[in-house]
Design brief:
Elements: E1 3-7, E2 18-20, H1 23-33, E3 37-42, H2 70-84, E4 91-94, H3 99-121
Helix pairs in contact: 1-2, 2-3
Length: 140
């Protein structure tokens, strides 16, 4: 099945996309349907009602704990690649209007690409490598 994930707390998803408003539910969706997802598009700012520490205890700094963002989803994907060897079969797009958040998300995408390239270079080619993710930073 061709699934597409749209992460945004305000903008509606385009036709044919599944919308998630919070980082945690986006990560749960990605984890469950990883091999069935063809594309994801992420916003950075997701409101103030979900703290990053709710799913990442290291982010708990009391009242200064930052809200969860689309960047946290990318860092989770990065961990899946680096720690678990899961190569994303999906294209990653960014649709955030936050320039600072976009820059940080682009860095996370570059890191994901780097981990995938290093992983693929360290082992013999296989048919699975043809589905390696690409990342894009296009605005929608």
């Amino acid at each position: 099945m061709d699934r597409k994930l749209w992460l945004d707390d305000r903008r509606p998803a385009p036709d044919g996309w599944v919308r998630r408003r919070r980082a945690r539910t986006a990560m749960e969706y990605l984890d469950r349907y990883w091999d069935e997802i063809s594309e994801i598009s992420l916003d950075h700012d997701l409101g103030e009602d979900e703290a990053a520490s709710s799913f990442w205890p290291g982010f708990n700094v009391g009242p200064l704990t930052p809200p969860a963002t689309g960047e946290h989803v990318l860092r989770w994907i990065e961990a899946q690649v680096f720690l678990n060897g899961r190569i994303p079969p999906f294209v990653i797009r960014l649709h955030t209007a936050n320039p600072v958040g976009r820059a940080r998300m682009e860095q996370a995408c570059a890191s994901i690409r780097s981990f995938i390239a290093a992983r693929q270079a360290s082992r013999p080619p296989s048919s699975d490598d043809s589905s390696a993710s690409s990342t894009s930073t296009s605005s929608t």
